[in-house]
Every structure is written in structure tokens, then in C-alpha cells.
Amino acid sequence: MSHYQRSSPTAAAPAAGDAERDVALAQFRAVRATTERLVAPLTPEDQGLQSMPEASPARWHLAHTTWFFETFVLAAHAAGYAPYDARYTGLFNSYYETLGAPFARAARGLLSRPGSADVLAYRAAVDVALERLIADCAFDAWPAVAELVTLGLHHEQQHQELILTDIRHAFFQNPLHPPYRRDLKAPLRSTPVRQGWREIPGGICEVGAAPGESFAFDCERPRHRAFLRPFRIATRPVTNAEYAAFIGDGGYDDSRWWLADGIAAVRAQGWCAPLYWSAPTLEATVFDLAGTSGIDADAPVCNVSFFEADAYARWAGRRLPTEVEWEVAAATGSLRGNLLENDHLRPVAARASPAGAGLLQMFGDVWEWTQSAYAPYPGYRAPEGAIGEYNGKFMSGQMVLRGGSCATPSGHLRPSYRNFFPPTARWQFAGLRLAEDA
């Protein structure tokens, strides 16, 4: 079902269509420009770095997001469209097996050609063709085109965040620890906010994307009923200082707090602190996109895996919220937060709300691990065709995160948004918020 409702073909319909197209065109240009702005501080050499199989070079992100528009929008709806370069069909395919064999994910860093200038030329050519399609496609075709363009824009916003998390991980491998940017905005200092608790009554609730939501990924649907027991959720995420207390109490050495796979990962990978900490103490330094600096004790802890988040919660005598609990708690809150546009590109300490109460930092700063496995909602069916591989095929071995981070674009989030990563993932801006039974 389209996210766009087509009007009856009355005399006023073409004007409404023009207005929708103008909005779509402006959004398309803005998102594409943001991606290129994020890559601008990187040299061509930087853009080719791939530090681990789970990460991708910035140049590949630039090309893959373009491939998405070319493959799913232009090839399907632009009459007579010829691919910019037929060789790119497999080269920049991420994981859509129904479209052919993708180039090996772990080998993306070997693609020194096409170079950065070639990829930008590819983007420019596809942008011209896409803008022409937005302007000229038939009225009857517009709803389908509009839906795919919107999906492509949200897909690209996901890759905007990945560009930042992936280059941070790559720069961390360099003993020089070069900053991504030296001019990031410093956060304002504020009085530390004590953790409080908000009680949420139990009962029947509805979760998932609402029917009137302008956009949602397929995995957020259908909206459905769920039963909640009364619970309490922390008013802010766990801070670096609080997490350091867990470390200082021997948390990484005490198997009582860990799931079996979690303690196995600790021992195999040598984890003793969040990723990017120079040592397992609050007096250490942390590497972020601005370079190396001291650890802000009051900022949300970041770059911890699900296993670490879960172990901390057990040590603290609490638990992680379920994704249903998180969504119900967040549903009445503001979507404002420390997001990409704030230009900190790091989590910042909570600031008390004007009313002195309520949930803080539900959106932005850090993605928050939940205890929920990434699984289909009741009644879920993946879309037909290759686009059905976008989310559904990953509903195994992943855990759900909620809320967005300091690198998530505004306008990309909603309470129903379901992010997901394997439980060992640490290079994302991921932290945690505690919950407990009431």
C-alpha cells in the first residue's frame, strides 16, 4: 500500500501533484547534498578505507545510495533509462540477491576504482535523471515513484550515519588518531542530571507505525496490540561515570552478569571498556570524530554492545526495556534531541527539562539497546520483489535499538523506528537506558 494517497482526477489534482513533486524534489536535493557534505572533509584516500567487514568505505556509501535510486526508481519508472555504467549493477549492490550476485561485502575496501571523482560523477548523472523523473512522470505513476523516492531518501539517511560511524572506526585504526573534523561544536556545560524513574501503567497498548504516518519502514508495520505489565523506565541513559563504576567493580571479569555468548565475546575480543576508550577508567581518553579528548563523565556511555548493555543492567539490579516498553514510554515525548544537525557528533550530557521532569534524551545522543530480538510483528509480510529484502531477511540474530543518535538526521526518526544490529556490534553510537518491573 502506498504511503501517498492519490486524489481523484479532478481539475485541482494536477496542482496538488505539482506541490507534492516540489516537496519531493526539495527533500531529494537536501538529502543528497547532506551526504556529500558529510564526505567533503575526507580525502580520496580516506574515502576508500574499510576497517572491518561490517563497515564500508565512504566512497562505497556514496555509490550504493546512488545505485539504490538508479535500480529501484529509474530502472523501474523512467522510460528508456539506460544504466550509467552496467558494471555498477553488481559492484554497488549491497545484499539484494534477487538482483544478482553482489560484490563481496568484506572486499569493498579493495575498490580503488571507480575513484571518488568517478563516483561523484555517477551521483550527479543519476540526480539529473531522478529530478527529471520527479518533474515529468505521469500523474498515474507518481504515487509509486513518490513512495520509492521517499524510501530511497530514508535509506540514504541511514547511510549518512554509517558514513560517520565507519570512518570513525577506520581513523581509530590509525596510530595518529586523526580527527574527522576539528570544528565540531563543543557541547554546553550543564549541571549533572540525576537519574530518576518514570512509572508506566500496564494494560493493552498499540505499537508500530500508525496508519497516518507519512513514512515508516515495512518492519514497523502492522500496528498491533500488545500487553504490558506495569514498569518503570529511567529518565535518562546510563552515563560514562555510572558505567565506569561497573568496570571498577570488576564487571568485565564477573560472569554472573553476562549471557554465555556475551562473556565468550569478552574473553575472545579482550573487551574491558567501551570501544574507543584508551583504558578501562574514567580518567582515560576517548576517540571520537573530533579526535582524542577526555571522557565526559556525565554524557551517555556509548559504543557498547548489547551484551555489555545487558551485563551492566544486571549488575545494576535492573534490566533493559523491551522495545514495546520503550515505544510506549517515548510515544508522548518530543523528537527533538542531539542529532546530526546539532553538529556535536558525540553524545552530550543531559540537561534538565524546563519542567524539571519527564524523560530526557529519548531521541538523539545514543541508540538505546532493548532486550527485544529483531523479529516480525504479528501479521508482517515482506514487500514483494527485491525491495522485500530490505528488512525482512535480517530478522534473525539481531537485537533492536531505539531512539536515534548524535549522528542520526532529524526527520528520520519516529517512536516506532526499529534499528537493529548483532549483539556484538560496538562501533555504532549505542548506549542504554534502564528499566525495571513496577
Can you walk me through this structure?
The protein has 438 residues and is α+β, with helices and mostly antiparallel strands. Helix 3 (58-77) packs antiparallel against helix 6 (142-172). The strands form four sheets. It has a four-stranded mixed β-sheet. A three-stranded antiparallel β-sheet has the order 1-4-11, covered by helices on one side. It has a two-stranded antiparallel ribbon with strand order 2-3. The chain has two domains: 13-172, Up-down Bundle (Four Helix Bundle (Hemerythrin (Met), subunit A)), CATH 1.20.120; 197-437, paralog of FGE (formylglycine-generating enzyme) (Alpha-Beta Complex), CATH 3.90.1580.10. It contains ten helices and eleven strands. Strand 5 and strand 6 form a beta hairpin. The longest helix has 31 residues, at 142-172. It starts with 12 loop residues before the first helix and ends with a strand. The protein is 33% helix and 10% strand.
Short structural description:
33% of the residues lie in helices and 10% in strands. The protein is of the alpha+beta class and 438 residues long. The relative contact order is 0.14.
